Amino acid sequence: MSVTFYSIAEANSRKTFFLIFFFFILLGLIGFLVDYFYLHFPRKFSFPLFTSIAIFIATIQSIVSYYQGDNIILRSLGARGLNLESIKEMTLLNVVEEMSIAAGIPRPRVYVIDSDAPNACAVGRDPQHASICVTSSLLDLLNREELQGVIGHEIAHIKNRDILTMTITAALLGAIIILCEIGWRLQYMRGYEGEEGEGVGNRAGCLFFILFLFFLIVAPIIAKLVFLAVSRSREYIADAHSAMFTRNPLGLASALEKIAKAPAGKLGSAATAHLFIADPLKRAIGESEGFWADLWSTHPPIQKRIELLKQMAV
């Protein structure tokens, strides 16, 4: 069975649905355990308060992320509109139009982030509601062919609907972290007040309580590992599609080489690092290979991506 843009977009839509389902189950379980151990649901408190709060937070986070996630991210990155009197920014607009035509999607909105860290990202929920951001230092660093490779990569993320998957999962990961933090604070208050709960009054209660504390620790880790796995795998596909749009894989390879050699600058945060074409934090683990690096890095090794692009040109 051949892999097409449509099959990737459909697979990403299914993946987004299952990720949302997984995170909702995880959030509901965290809320239920908080209800069970701290409100003694259903023995003393008949309403599952924290379970309801968890589902409510997840629902609101998902809706806000779907409709306003791109605007929230653009504001947090300090993105601004194009200055069409600038030759470099006018060239950027032309390149985005070229790559949009090559990909067969509407031209996304285009923004510039004034930053000394050369990088680029795409945000939004579908090709009709998408934006591309490029840093000012990237425009200074790259020639037109290299810029085409970078924009082709971001256009591929839009066409494949990677942007929706990553925006939704990032929001739900934040909800899980918030709820686990509430659980830890309740545990601290309980210990401070010296309360002896019914759930820990016997051996089975102690076992469940230990499992609950263990769950508070591992739930955010599991959620983040799922999030990172989605983030890494899409980069290779977007590189390949960029090469298809531009018919010049060496353009993107050269751009990645320049980005890799550039010193780290201030750009976004750990929460937005996965959105960019290269890790803006330049974490050492991102350039390593192996099981541990694969688990914890937001991007595959940039040198490996460059090698694969060069192999496409042979």
Q: What's a concise summary of this model?
A:
The protein is of the alpha+beta class and 314 residues long. It has ten helices and four strands, in the order H-H-E-H-E-E-E-H-H-H-H-H-H-H.
Major beta-sheet overview: 4 strands, mixed
Query: Quick check: average pLDDT?
Result: 81
Counting helices, strands and paired strands, the structural category is alpha+beta
Low-confidence stretches: none
Cross-sheet strand order for the largest sheet: 1-2-4-3
Salient structural properties:
314 residues, alpha+beta, four-stranded mixed β-sheet, 10 helices, 67% helix, elongated
Description:
The chain is of the alpha+beta class. Helix content is 67%, strand content 7%. It contains 10 helices and 4 strands; from the N terminus they run ααβαβββααααααα. It has helices spanning 5-38, 49-77, 87-103, 136-141, 144-159, 162-193, 203-246, 249-261, 291-296, 302-313, and strands spanning 80-81, 109-113, 120-126, 129-135. The protein has a 4-stranded mixed sheet with strand order 1-2-4-3, sandwiched between helices. The chain is elongated and about 70 Å long. The model has no long low-confidence stretch (mean pLDDT 81).
List the helices and strands and how they pair.
Layout: H1 5-38, H2 49-77, E1 80-81, H3 87-103, E2 109-113, E3 120-126, E4 129-135, H4 136-141, H5 144-159, H6 162-193, H7 203-246, H8 249-261, H9 291-296, H10 302-313
